[in-house]
Amino acid sequence: VRPATHVVMPDKKKVKMPEAKIEDKRVLEEQIEILKVKLENEKKMRERFKKESEWISKNWERKFLILRNSFHVLKNEMFTRHTLYRQFAVLADTSFNYI
What we know:
It is a single chain. Helices cover 76% and strands 10% of the residues. The chain is mainly α. It has one domain (4-93).
């Protein structure tokens, strides 16, 4: 059995606690501090992943916008070529009579 030591509690009263309990309390406090540090690291990592995810999402949105605009340009060009081809075909079948 270890001798009791005096511990001052928040209300300024001296309470006798065995050294084993003090040691256990100190070990638990150290574990709490370690867990707090790990928690902070996890929060930082989560924020970093969130920012990276948002950045990747923005990049894909930009790429999709560029592809969509390119598709519209190609569609318009195809329509124009098709229209000119039809006009040429109609013009080629037309006969002119000069009076």
